[in-house]
Specification:
Its cofactor is FAD. InterPro entries: 2Fe-2S_ferredoxin-like_sf, 2Fe-2S_ferredoxin-type, 2Fe2S_fd_BS, Beta-grasp_dom_sf, Cbr1-like_FAD-bd_dom, FAD-bd_FR_type, Flavoprot_Pyr_Nucl_cyt_Rdtase, FNR_nucleotide-bd. Keywords: 2Fe-2S, FAD, Flavoprotein, Iron, Iron-sulfur, Metal-binding, Oxidoreductase. With 353 residues, the chain is an alpha/beta fold. The protein folds into three domains: 95 residues, Elongation Factor Tu (Ef-tu), domain 3 (Beta Barrel); 130 residues, Nucleotide-binding domain of ferredoxin-NADP reductase (FNR) module (Rossmann fold); 92 residues, Beta-grasp domain (Ubiquitin-like (UB roll), Roll). The strands form five sheets. It has a six-stranded antiparallel sheet, covered by helices on one side. It starts with a strand and ends with a strand. The structure holds flavin-adenine dinucleotide and FE2/S2 (inorganic) cluster.
Length: 353
């Protein structure tokens, strides 16, 4: 089954903070784009005549909000985030890929659980979708949010979060953590790190830490620190879910890899009922080689984080620069991310659904 593409028309643009805007979209005529809380959309705007792709998590809830929404925070000198915030207007249509991602929650009215969300900056977006989806459905569950921002002015969804806290009093608690607050701030002035995480969980939330479910989305360092804290309490790995937004940096190929494994190889790609044989040059990823050959494979972040380019290696061996985007089970089953994968042997065959 190939990936679906849609053209979504901008319905409304909301200024959330000085550098963050929410874009809501109409569903396409005669169909609705279905998604799960926590998933992302890949936007494909045309900038300077070139189509570019970036992933944006939906900040809307599939079961509560009529429109689909993404919330974009400007990245200094960032191409797409600034283009969207500066140029896109109500009524414009943007091409998007169908929603994707595994950082999801399925609200279940039978469940009574404790869900703890840790967000930093724009990492609040999928968490907002998750909490808005879970709270009305799971009346016996409790949701706690630790949200790190720079200062009061930069808290995304500040008002909506306060309203939800009132509406779901006793079941939803928000803890804002600021690094550079104003003098009048009476809340936490700290980073979300290992030590502060323990305090939030034990003192502020007083929860059974080992039994809760955790959803983390923010800077890599923050997520690492939170995970370290959760490990102190033996929280099972399957109860910790993470979404990576940021750039992972370029992988530097070692001399050893260069000599021994990564060389020009012919790779077969099975996609939409066709077999394509492509030459993947040393240092090129399988995705780059496929796009060079005009094979329109799905992709988004091109950094091994979003899983839009998922494929399965059914023959031969590949090396991945970055494996964090896949679970251990997926890796064992032969799944790969073509955007960070290089053929290591001859005869590599990749199935892309
Ligand atoms: C699954 C997923 C979901 C995402 N959801 C959201 C979302 O809901 N809201 C949102 O605002 N962003 C989100 N992002 C990040 C988004 O896709 C872009 O990476 C971001 O908008 C920057 O793109 P750009 O074109 O403006 O910057 P680029 O032109 O790509 O980058 C410019 C510079 O900024 C650095 N950079 C790139 N991304 C980041 C970042 N996230 N933080 C800090 N520095 C960065 C780059 O290394 C580069 O040096 C998500 C990313 C992923 C993978
Ligand atoms: S394109 Fe995002 S993981 Fe490959």
């Amino acid at each position: 089954m190939s990936v679906k593409y849609f053209h979504l028309t901008v319905k409304e643009i909301i200024e959330e903070t000085p550098d963050t805007k929410t874009f809501t979209f109409w569903h396409p005529v005669h169909q609705s784009v279905s998604y799960k809380a926590g998933q992302f959309l890949t936007l494909i705007p045309v900038i300077n005549g070139q189509k570019v792709r970036r992933s944006y998590s939906m900040s809307s809830s599939p079961n509560k909000d009529a429109s689909i929404a993404v919330t974009v925070k400007r990245v200094p000198n960032g191409l797409v985030s600034n283009y969207l915030c500066d140029n896109v207007k109500v009524g414009d249509a943007i091409e998007v890929m169908e929603p994707m991602g595994h950082f999801v929650i399925e609200p279940n009215p039978m469940k009574e659980r404790t869900i703890v969300l840790f967000g930093g900056g724009s990492g609040i977006t999928p968490l907002m979708s998750i909490l808005k989806s879970v709270l009305p459905v799971e009346q016996g569950s409790k949701v706690f949010l630790v949200y790190g921002s720079r200062d009061e002015e930069n808290i995304i969804f500040k008002k909506q979060l306060a309203e939800l806290e009132l509406k779901y009093e006793g079941r939803f608690k928000v803890l804002h953590v600021l690094t550079k607050p104003s003098y009048t701030w009476t809340g936490y002035k700290t980073r979300i790190n290992q030590a502060s995480t323990v305090i939030f969980l034990k003192q502020d939330f007083a929860i059974d830490i080992a039994k809760a479910e955790y959803y983390l989305c923010g800077p890599e360092g923050m997520m690492e620190q939170v995970e370290n804290a959760l490990n102190l309490f033996d929280v099972p790995k399957e109860n910790i879910h993470k979404e990576h937004f940021g750039s992972t940096g370029t992988h530097e190929i070692t001399q050893e890899e260069e000599d021994e494994s990564i060389k020009d190889q012919t790779v077969t790609i099975q996609y939409e009922g066709n077999d394509y044989q492509i030459l993947v040059k040393a240092h090129e990823t399988i995705l780059e080689a496929a796009l060079r050959e005009d094979i329109d494979l799905p992709y988004s972040c091109q950094a091994g984080m979003c899983t839009a380019c998922l494929g399965k290696c059914v023959s031969g061996k590949v090396h991945m620069d970055e494996e964090d985007g896949l679970t251990d089970k997926e890796l064992q089953q032969g799944y790969i991310l073509t955007c960070v994968a290089h053929p290591k042997t001859a005869g590599v065959v990749i199935e892309v659904e």
